[in-house]
Specification:
- The complex is a heteropentamer, with one copy of chain A (251 residues), two copies of chain B (243 residues), one copy of chain D (252 residues) and one copy of chain E (288 residues).
- With 251 residues, chain A is mainly α.
- In chain E, helix 1 packs across helix 8, helix 1 crosses helix 9 and helix 4 packs across helix 11.
- The radius of gyration of chain E is 19 Å and the shape is globular.
- The chains are: A mainly alpha (251), B alpha/beta (243), D mainly alpha (252), E alpha/beta (288).
- Chains A and D meet through helix 1, helix 4, helix 5, helix 6 and helix 8 of A and helix 1, helix 4, helix 5, helix 6 and helix 8 of D.
- The structure holds adenosine-5'-triphosphate (2 copies) and magnesium ion (2 copies).
- Chain D: This is ABC transporter permease.
- Chain D: Belongs to the binding-protein-dependent transport system permease family.
- Chain D: Keywords: Cell membrane, Membrane, Signal, Transmembrane, Transmembrane helix, Transport.
Amino acid sequence: MNKMSRGLLSLATPIALLGVWGALGDPASPVAPPPQTWLTQAAVMLAAGDLQLAVLATLKTVLLSTLVAGMAGTVMGATLGARRAVSDTVAPTLEFLRSIPPPTIVPVAMLLIGAGTGLDITVVALATVWPVMLNVLQATRSIHPTLISTGHTLRLSPWSRVRNIYVPCILPGVIAGLRVAAPLAIIVALLVEMLATRPGIGRLLLTAQRDFDAPGVFALLLTVGLIGVAVNGAFEWLERSAARRLPNAMR
Amino acid sequence: MTSASGEKTILQGIDLNIGRGEFLCMVGGSGTGKTTLLRALGGFCAPTGGAVFYEGAAFSGPPAGVVTVFQDYGNALLPWRTVRGNVALGIEEQVSGAALDDRIDAALAMVGLQQAAREYPAKLSGGMQQRLQIARALALQPKVLLMDEPFGALDAMTKAKLQDQLRHIQASTGATIVFITHDVDEAVYLGDRVILLAGSPGRIASELRPALPATRDQISTKEMPEYLHARHELLERLHGAAR
Amino acid sequence: MTSASGEKTILQGIDLNIGRGEFLCMVGGSGTGKTTLLRALGGFCAPTGGAVFYEGAAFSGPPAGVVTVFQDYGNALLPWRTVRGNVALGIEEQVSGAALDDRIDAALAMVGLQQAAREYPAKLSGGMQQRLQIARALALQPKVLLMDEPFGALDAMTKAKLQDQLRHIQASTGATIVFITHDVDEAVYLGDRVILLAGSPGRIASELRPALPATRDQISTKEMPEYLHARHELLERLHGAAR
Amino acid sequence: MTPRLPQTRQWLLPAALLVAWQLAATAQEGPSILPSPVEIGQTLLETLVSGRLPADALHTFAAAIASWVICLLIGIPLGMALGSAERLRVALSLFIELLRPLPAVALIPLAILVFGFSWQTEITVTVFASVWPLILASRSGIERLHPRILEVVSTLHLRRWHALRCVITPAAFRQILVGAKLSFSLCLVVSVVAEMVGNPAGLGWGLVSAQEAMRASETFAYLFAIGILGVCANCALDFAVKHLFPGLAQGN
Amino acid sequence: QTPARTKVRVASVVSAAWLPLWIAKDKGMFEAHGLDVDITTVQNVSTVVGALGRQFEVSGCTPIDIIKARLRKLDVVGIAGNTQELTANQQMRLVTRADSPIRDLADLKGQVVATPSLNGVIHIATLNALRQRGVDPKAVRFQEMAFANMGDQLAAGRVAAAEIVEPYASASMKVGVRTLGNPMLGVADPVILTCWMASGQWARDNRGAVAAWRAALNDAIQYIQKNDQASRAVLAKWTRLPDAVAASVHLPAYTTRLGDAEIDTWIQTAVAVGAINEKASAIGASLN
Ligand SMILES: Nc1ncnc2c1ncn2[C@@H]1O[C@H](COP(=O)(O)OP(=O)(O)OP(=O)(O)O)[C@@H](O)[C@H]1O
Ligand SMILES: Nc1ncnc2c1ncn2[C@@H]1O[C@H](COP(=O)(O)OP(=O)(O)OP(=O)(O)O)[C@@H](O)[C@H]1O
Ligand SMILES: [Mg+2]
Ligand SMILES: [Mg+2]
């Protein structure tokens, strides 16, 4: 399949579904209005300038918190993966934290750090660090023992071992984790924006919901979906360029 | 000197002294613990009883100057580095620039991999991968070289060439070499001393010092009566041990 | 009949006919394309020019009755299955119950792994893992057996036993066997015909039919003048090809 | 992460944190919304004895498990199919990426419309939010298989189903397990969120109503219950995996 | 033999405002008026509107909810009042910390104020009060949060003031707050704070049931006025408020009166503060 037919094929499914919805949907439906009404509503929001600002704000939160979660998750996952003793010691505490729903963190975090950019990033990073950590942990534990022995027998410095053996081996895990984490970051960012009325798509979504503005809700959801596609595209590109630099390690 | 075990006892009552500059070959049936013994010498697993000493000191982790060449070459190479990059791995922190290039080229030349220098390991044949691992170890100019069936995947010609190469390296650098092989000819041709592991748990069943000259030659040495005698003797003992 | 290549041409002008029930050995320098040729025969890579036929038909994917034993045994075993489970893999859908157990036991007995039947592959030595892969292939009772350096990691004793085992299996089942080895003695002792690959891109440089009786014996056969002659001849040609 | 229960070391950290909290709570004067662990513990005990907490926890747990099972049934086959069939992957990838970042909270009104405030809403929303890690992990599990494994399958002439069951799935198992674990904890978290907004039942609703009844220590007791449920469920999952698939935990 | 009772499924949130509903249910007033009422408690009424006419016939709400839904052409109508704010009985306060330098609404410029719901009744009332005081509402930042968290946020200095209602208002008074007045009374006095809405279709088809609904709630309101202690017991049962709080909670003024005039007041206010931009005022939101 060439690039062109791939592009067409991937567009086919969503466009067919939206087409059917558009043809059969009732434009006056208070709950599931067809796509054409979304576009009208999106145009209104764009004209008012709300949508652009909200998208920027949400994107900023998502990117910064994914960065934080990516780094923290990688360090945590690699440490836990390489050191049984550490992972045994902190496992239940981490499992506990992992089970706390983000909406319940928001009020506490709002009290402790106030409703600022710090709140968005903290809560989102807290919720998205886990996929990265678990994937990196798995990748670290899957490094072939002979490869680790190789690092030892060549007496590589710890830094060189990290750079030449651990990093290339866990990089696919980091990327796999980030690919789960990034859309999750979008979701949680919206949630924080809704719960703490932080600027962003979440707040617009909340307003639209409260105003019973169904086309507006769908217009925003479509925007969120498109952001997700863009973020995923970025990660696919990252994965491909990593695969070019690390041939055969991306299996 | 050592005895090592996992969940079950793999080696028992091993008492082995390896002299500086010695070329020690290790033979023995499949699963008798050769690899395990080599791993203990290389600092990869501590014995559960007894101890291993290197230059008079016990150690944990591979001591300086000791390099192991692993049996499963497929997993010992970095798939994301080219052949050159893999050889560079152990020495790039110590030397750099033209000196590094020279060391790499020299190591690749010793194993005959100059042609493949820019390939990735996945594109190499089994034998080429194993030679690459050997080149990487040689590039380090080690004082002790521990090799686990390094020539197992090689054809007779390449093998013979590398055998001579190895004896030559040992003679010129005074390195100590411990060498596992299944090839009796190889063990007798290479080794100053050959030990034979047998049984389960494994122990040193027998020891043999082929009375061969220091400089050896694939044709004349293998025709010497001392060679033939040592070879015969080792085969006998192997058969005996297996019974 | 075939010529296969990756980014660069690996094999060229290969024209090879393997008769039913034949025992064909393949020797040649490291990287001359033996594994590649075996993969083409096994249906794992299509030739870029020419074609491969099995029982008169071209094929894609391994044809029924053809089983390959891979060179890198480490990746070919299922680490989550025990030794028994690995042997069962290919046959558990066809037979079951006591018949299955019998087939597994028989296959394990052929390679001498009865003791390790309940172990996981990670706990086996290199040679034991390779024997396990062989047992798994034998359990299938294949019509064609493609083996890539199957005895490379084995000690002389085990190797000799398995060689005789293999000839015996071939005689009793009429299987066709293609066998890559670096051991000239092994090639001559086992093969009805030995082909020699050489050059880059690889080609069939030479072919040899040791005039040995169908039933062979480790001691007497290896003392026969025909054996010694074939062995000498093959060595000569190998040296010649390498030059 | 495989917490081994009999060890004491792993309880040191939580214990230390609780002690620090207790000290901070006692040091603080005046009425506070942040209750001390001792108070929380007492409330936890009361709600346990009264049977309210166990009933709520059971509801949440059942909803999470049901959602997780549905996630497994959808996510693993779909992910594996995406990993092995390129056309399917291309056809669905954009669609999936469009859906994946949609927040469950935004979909709750839609689900309520179809199912009302009910367990169906809860499960639909939970499955929607939690199935993605499984799809992704199963897909990459297939894509990252060692090529030799596939060659073994074809040279042994394994039938499709047998190969899938006995070779492909176990070989991708570790990767899938990562997705399953992520999906499992997401199921718990999202069930609670869905209960807070879309299905007035279970721990999520308990949390909300405790908060609205101004029972701070009960709020935290519920929060703790949610966390403890998560820890126990994860332990149980690890235990189950270890004992149901002993070979897969081995080697690899 | 009683005639078959009309089934009414109703959604409400949990707060003292909805006490008449629970009284009518627990003390048999609904039954007496031929209604079979089924109560579901939810967290957020804005999600209920979609389910109105499907899973629910009736839902608690605020006048603003009805107005917004009508603006979106949703078929909902107000069918009864529930609580009202009046000088004699005040539920809402705008409060600051006792030691705060803020003395007046004008001091809120550039400050953060906690609100339970942006563009909800309480928030609109506050905006209206700011407007009346000559303060640009845009100069004040509003931060949404649950009533339960407002005391802490005030104490921690995260917000300068909070729009708070009973019983949270009394509870936070105890930690030392000062009131800046009751913005709600600036809208009207009395003014409807909460009310009941129903699916328009259902209300038109069941005018009898709507009347019965009002009658039952009226009975309940009278019962509350006469039986304070028993009513508080019902309150404690449904809200699970701690007994001490339930016993001392300041109950709001209940009323079932809801007409176009009451709704209109809110439309005017919402338009004035810019919460809705529809100029049309008479949208027929209530069923009379
Ligand atoms: N990780 C392990 N855990 C437990 N037992 C092991 C492990 N590795 C090897 N063994 C066992 O130890 C014994 C010796 O293994 P070892 O690998 O040292 O044999 P070897 O002499 O190198 O054999 P080969 O020539 O076949 O490579 C074998 O019986 C094997 O089953
Ligand atoms: N996947 C691949 N892509 C490209 N080139 C390859 C690939 N695999 C092998 N080659 C090249 O093909 C040539 C032949 O490889 P092959 O593995 O067939 O050799 P071989 O005869 O089996 O050698 P050995 O005895 O060392 O196993 C080598 O030069 C190797 O570099
Ligand atoms: Mg070994
Ligand atoms: Mg090969």
